[in-house]
Each structure stands twice: as C-alpha cells, then as structure tokens.
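Worked example

This section walks through a single chain of length 728. The input is the sequence exactly as stored; nothing has been trimmed or padded.
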Amino acid sequence: MRNYPDAMTPKKTRSAALEKHEPTTEIPPLNSPQLYINRELSLLAFQRRVLEEAQNQHNPLLERVKFISIAGSNTDEFFMVRVAGLIDQVDAGIVDVGPDGMQPSAQLVAVRREVKKLLADAHKCLHDEILPALAEAGIQILDYAALNEKQLAFADAYFQETVFPVLTPLAFDPGRPFPHISNLSLNLAVLIRDQGGVEHFARVKVPDSLPQFMPLKRARKKIRKRPPREEAFVWLEQVIAANLPALFRGMDVIEAHPFHVTRDADIAIKELDAEDLLETIEEGVRQRRFGSVVRLVVADDMPPHILEILENNLEIEASQVYRVKGPLALSRLMQLYSVERPDLKETPFLPAVPKALAPPTADEDIFALIRRQNILLHHPFDSFQPVVDFLKKAAKDPQVLAIKMVLYRIGRNSPVVEALLEANEEGKQVAVLVELKARFDEESNIEWARALEREGVHVVYGLLGLKTHCKLLMVVRRESGAIRRYLHIATGNYNVVTAHLYTDIGMLTCDEDLGADATDLFNFLTGYSAQKDYKKLLVAPVNLRDRFEAMIQREIAHQLRGGQGAQGRLIFKMNALVDPQVIRLLYEASQAGVKIDLLVRGICCLRPGIPGVSDNIQVISVVGRFLEHSRIYYFRNGGEEEIYLGSADLMPRNINRRVELLFPLQGPELIRRVRDDILALYLSDTVQGRQMQSDGTYVRRRAEAGKRSVNAQAKLVKQAVSPPTVAR
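Given that input, the structure is written out below as tokens.
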C-alpha cells in the first residue's frame, strides 16, 4: 500500500470478513485473499445474470428462450475450458492458488454447488414459465407420450423416412469396445435383451445434423402477412427412443435413457515444438473430440446400473455427474428462436449510418471524409457496413498500395475476406495476420487462412507464445506524391454477424502518429521488431501495462494534489476485471479518494464497497439484448480528459500473453460523446444494470422514486437514425 499524507490516510474502520461477516478493526492488506472474488465463481455469477434474462417476464418470449439457451451454451464452454483446467491441476497435484486463496480442489467443490443451483433454476424456469407460455402463444413442445393418434402417425413416419437412415447403434460387449462419445453429444444409453435372455448395452447418438425439435406437421409455403399459426414439436430423442425396436430387430428393448457428455476442449499448443503452426492447430482441433470427459449430464431418473456403466467407461467420478429434470442440453433450445414469430421477438431495427459518413457531394469518397475528421462507429446502433465499404473501396482504388489487417474471429461467408481477395486480384500488397488460436473458431480461421494463401495473400499466424487479439486495419494510399495511412481500429472483431449482436466501437482515422504506430505494430507482428514504445498506442505485451498503470497512478496524484478541478475520476468499461496488480492499484486509488465506476459485463474479481478499501468503487454489470463487448477506459486527468478504447480486458492473459492494443480518442468532441452518450448512459441504466455487492452477488438496479427508468441499450436503439424495418 502506498504512503499517503496524514490527511489522506484512510481511517481504520470496520471491514467485513466477507465469508463469515465477522467485524475487524483493521483494514486488510491489499493482497489479502478476502479482497478478491474467485474467477470461476464470478464467471458463474455472470451466467446467473444471463439466466435472469430468461426469467424476466418483460422480455419477449422467444428472447427468453434465447437467453436460456445461451446460459446452457456458456455453461458447456465453462466446463470444456475452465473446469477442465481445474481437474487437470488436481490430477497433476498442482496447488495453484489465485489472489482469492482457493485451491483447485476447493474451487471444484464450489463450482459444482453453484452449477447445480444454476441448472435447477434454469429447468424450473423452462418448465414452469417458458414452455407453458410458449404453448399459450401457439408453440407447443410436446412429450412423445402425449401425442394424439395423428401426431403419432406423423412422428413415426418422419422417423422412418428421415431419422432412421441416419442412426448408427453401437454395441458394447467383449468383442466391441465401449464406443467413443463425442464432445457435447446427446446420446441414448440402451439396454436390450437378446433371444437367449442375455442383456446388452448399446449407445445410440442423437444426430445433431437433424432438427432437435421435430415438427409435427409439414412446413407450409411462406405467405406474407399471415396470422401466427400454431406450431407443435416433439423432442427428437423421444421419437428415437420410442422407435428403438426398429434399430434392434428381434431384440427386446428394456430401457433407454438420455445422457450428455462434455469433454476437455482446451487445446494445448506446444508452439516451440511445432514446425508448422497451421498443421499443429488442425491436429489440436481434431484431438479436441477425444479430450477427457469433464461432465456427464443425465436425466434425474437414470437408474444406478446404467449410470455405473457410463461412469466406469467414461472414467469419471460421481462428482462429475449432474442429474437434471428435462432437456439435458439447454443449448439446443436455440432452434426454437428460428421459429417465424416476430411478435415474440425484439423489434428489429436498421442500424444508422453516421452523419460524418454522408458525403455532401457525389464525388467525395470515404477517404476524403476520414481526412476531414476522425469518425466513430458504435455498433450495432451504427451500421458495420461502412467498415466493409471502406475495405471494398480500398480494394478497388488505384491509389491504394497496400492493405494490412489482423483477423481474430471472422465468421462464415465473410465479405471482409472477399474484399481482401479482391484487393489481391487488383494488385494491392495484402498482408493478413490470421489468429489460428481463437478458441472454438480455429476451424473457420484455418479455412480462411488457406483460402487467402491459395490466392497469393501474405498470411502470417502471429507471434510465438502470444495470441494476437487486437483489431486493426491499415490502408496505405498514395496522395499528391506522398503516402497517407488510413486506419480502422476497434474493440470488436471483423465479423458482420456479431457486429449486429455485440456492442463495439471502432474509429476511422488518418492520424499520422497512429498510422506510424500501426506500421510499427504490423512490423512487430509480421517481421522482426524490438519496438519498446509507441507514440500513441498502448500495445500489450510491450507498453500497455506500464502506461495503463501509470495513468491510474496519475489519477491518484491528481486526487492527492487537491485543488479545484483536480478530483480523481476513473470510469472503466470492459468484459472482465481479473488482473490482481490492476485491482490493487484501483484499491489504492479508492483509498486516496478517487471516484471509480466500473462497468464490467462478466468476471469481476474486485470487491466494491469494502470500508477503508473500496468505498469509492461501484461495479455495474449490464446484461441485455446485445452482448456488451466494448472496452472503454476514461481518465479525468485533472480536467485534461483521456479515453482509450480497444481490444484489451484487464486480465493477466490479455496484458501479459496477448497482442492487444488500446487507442486514444482524438479530439474533445469524441471524448464528450463517449463520456456522456455511452459511459454516463450505461451508468444510469436502471433496467438492465445490476449493482455488484461486496460478497460478489448482484442486485438489479431500480430507478429512484419519481424518476424514469433508463434502459441504455433500448435508448441507443431508439436514437438510431434509421427507422425500424418491422413493427412488433
């Protein structure tokens, strides 16, 4: 802890021993475990907030279905990566405790407790609220046993025509080993009896290539402006289970029970031993299917003798088994969101095109508009199309000499890659860094990397031991005998799909210093460069930590210096706050009197509101229609305000083991816009905002008596220039 002048030294006060709520007369040291929340439990608290959106009856019904599916998918990924890592540590005898002091074994116990609660609440919400509401709205999810005669006939005919040819029953006996159960697969454990009275075990995989909700009537041709019609579905696994005799001819099917497997899917890349990183990543993706099982989800009525077969052959402990009542894989519910019922979804809207990108004359192109001013794009409220158009224009412009770009998550059918290929065909020098280690997007990125290489584009895969996560596009253009560099720098990926679903900010600029920094960064990424500092950019792992921490310390100094207008003020918006070094600095700033507002969507390991430590810190999480993804860092700086935006969250992996960048906003107008129209708006959210408590729980914020509620995302949608395309 820093030494402050006596006037600024925090008084000794009562600080809760957070787990036991016992008073103490001493302020704990800033590295005390009681001041830090466990990372895994904080991530599960975020999944709880996602589930709350499914429980929120004010949300449109199919949006609630979407949120419960997202909670299920997020939990799957949590086990594939985070829980798998904890199990590996326990198996290896590693006692690696974080700032919160919890050992891996203790974390596994706490995780199991929280996940069981989360799953129980999710299934209760699904069965007691969502499914009945869907039925009332004309979307029925029926059990096979409840089908009427006509529906049964249709379901059985669909099974014979469509499902039966796809199924492959796999036996388990002395001559045939226990079949491989692929990651995230839904399966039926089947017990059969042969004609000699001997019982056998078999596994039938529920094919994920078929709709998981089987429609109970033929699809009709689309008719415009037709009234909502009733839809009826039945779970695919129930149809398969009812028709198992067709798979086991001459056998008696005794029983069948569904089960769902989650495997370790975190790829360990030994880059030092990899002669070809692309081939190494490809092999890692293939091996992901065979990772050890970390979770088995079964129906609550699965009998012990079936469960014992699964536990023994999947080599798992009883603590890795989760019993649920209802669908085993909640992520499958996302299929329902595709039902054509706009009355049960959020009203669509057409993103706006900023006025700064509306040319006053027909012959003024986007390069002229960027030369006039820096242009800020706030997605999804501002359209992402100008970014694509900028790249397409650069591809065709005869004055453009080179295009350099970093691609992290691109998605399928990418117009961004198409524009890069076109630029290459037009003779531009095109260099692209494709990050192959973008988790769960490796296969897509490998495909794009190969496609770009086939056409002669210079493709690189990043730096040894570092994941490249920054979002950067540079266009080099010849103008009046000189060279000018145009940049798009952003907080989000070059993915046109997620640009409609995530909140992100990008800036189009031709600032000379930023252009010089971008050139140095690309040289660092594609060649050999020992660049130690940059003019304006904060780049990890080069200078971001030192410069960022120095700016927090500067804010402390402003606060301690006192005087009119010198009050310290920090507002940080990010996805996650984990880094203990930064958290300690924020505690020090709070102790010095700096007012700190943290907008943290997901993980937050800092505890706000602890007397004498974090009295001046509040943490708010906004979970709503769009996934909050932008990172914004505001420093009051004694009135000389600064705002940095970029790709970096405040996590050790981002600051120490990734190539990240934060870029400064240029000009007071843009700073005021982000400060007032984005940060202040989110801080005032009393609809989707939750206030974090010192114990790590979250309480939904409510408007004060007599004041109107504020929904930040809804207000930003309303402010979008273009009118909605569909009225609800």
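What to look for: The chain has a mean pLDDT of 88.
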